[in-house]
Design a protein that fits this description.
114 residues; alpha+beta; HIT family, subunit A; five-stranded antiparallel β-sheet; 2 helices; 5 strands; binds adenosine monophosphate; binds zinc ion
Length: 114
């Protein structure tokens, strides 16, 4: 069994509140939401972080971003606005080493981020 938490969600060994799924990507609500809308979009394939993607992953990256925009529409924040975040590495506070985009919305968000 995979030791990666998000791989286990992909394998349905850990339950999550699914928002959207296709052949290559999965979207599920964050267990500790930081905004009224807080959904994570991940590749089904294990990728540790953004820097592990190369030019050959162009289609996967496009699929992930399009999945984020679909989540925003499904969650009703496409017009009001939303923020995509990919915490990458220690300084950014990445806690799960499986690439994920946070889709955050439903409230005003400050800039610059903390
Ligand atoms: P990051 O800190 O950017 O690596 O984000 C990891 C995110 O995964 C955090 O926002 C956590 O709340 C979230 N998370 C951790 N475990 C789960 C889980 N079992 N289901 C859904 N989200 C989770
Ligand atoms: Zn993984």
């Amino acid at each position: 069994m995979s030791e990666c938490l998000f791989c286990q969600i992909v394998e349905k060994k850990i339950s999550a509140k699914l928002v959207q799924e296709d052949e290559h990507t999965l979207a599920f609500d964050d267990i500790n939401p930081q905004a009224p809308v807080h959904t994570l979009v991940i590749p089904k394939r294990h990728v540790s972080a953004l820097q592990d993607l190369g030019m050959g992953d162009d289609l996967l990256l496009a699929r992930l971003l399009i999945s984020c925009t679909k989540v925003a529409a499904l969650k009703g924040v496409r017009e009001s606005g939303y923020r995509l975040v990919a915490n990458t590495g220690r300084d950014a506070g990445q806690t799960v080493s499986h690439l994920h985009f946070h889709v955050l919305g439903g409230r005003h968000m400050a800039w610059p981020p903390g």
